[in-house]
Amino acid sequence: MPLASGLYYFAHQSGGYEKPPVILLHGAGADCFLWPPEIRRLPELRVFALDLPGHGKSTGPGRQSIEEYARCVISFLDTISLWKAVFVGHSMGGAIALSLALEFPERTAGLGLIATSARFSLPPSLLEDASTPATFSSAVEQLHTLSCGPHTPADVAKQTLKRLQAIRQTLLYADLQACSRFDVLSRLDSIQVPSLVICGTEDKLTPLRQASFLAQGIPNAALQTIDGAGHLVILEQPQRVARLLSIFLKTIPYQPGR
Questions:
Q1: Domain ranges in the chain?
Q2: How do residues 48-74 score in pLDDT, each as one tens digit?
Q3: Which whole-number Å values give the CA distances from 88 to 24, 61, 73, 136, 196, in the listed order?
Q4: Looking at domain 3-120+182-249, which CATH architecture does it have?
Q5: C-beta separation of 91 from 19 below 8 A
Q6: pTM across the whole model
Q7: Among residues 118, 142, 128, which one has the least CA distance to residue 177?
């Protein structure tokens, strides 16, 4: 994996320069390989899946706010000489994508918002349990329960638990804190780029009502629901999500170059 601006990333470049590059932003405590191959390798596109600061193989500590993460993404774009991109984020990554569209609209070609929200409603007990090593295992169990839906495949649930157990306690707590402080509900109408909102109907962390509000609040947004999927929709239904993204990305107007 190459390194740019302190961030490791996975790059898939099967497309030309006539289509916008795609930046994949993972959720709290995760890394770029949370994204399944079907999404990391979208055909005929340039796709960059990042390890956010302090996550995966990336250097330095995690950040304390969604806005700080957004600025790190802009630094990454500058380093690899990309001016504009479509930001596709899952959960916390979706919040970072929203922040990018609000704070750096000239750098944003479109948004893919998956299992995310303009304001997170995290259980206070989750934040409390994640705050100390002594109760971290309880936070992991709670987050695992919230992430998995009734139809989550057993292998996905097992791998998710393993991934959660491997996250540093301080990193996950900081990410959850950043999510809990994030609130752009009143600013959604200022986002003027094409946006696709994807949500599983059984999502317990960012439920369908929040996705519906997100799609209604952004002027150029469309909502796609995936029946039976939970918060891990990108792992439960990777081919469906990849197809929805591919169709959406073909509709985004883009002029190569700055």
A1: 3-120+182-249
A2: 999 999 999 998 889 999 999 999 999
A3: 5, 23, 12, 29, 9
A4: 3-Layer(aba) Sandwich (3.40)
A5: no
A6: 0.96
A7: 128
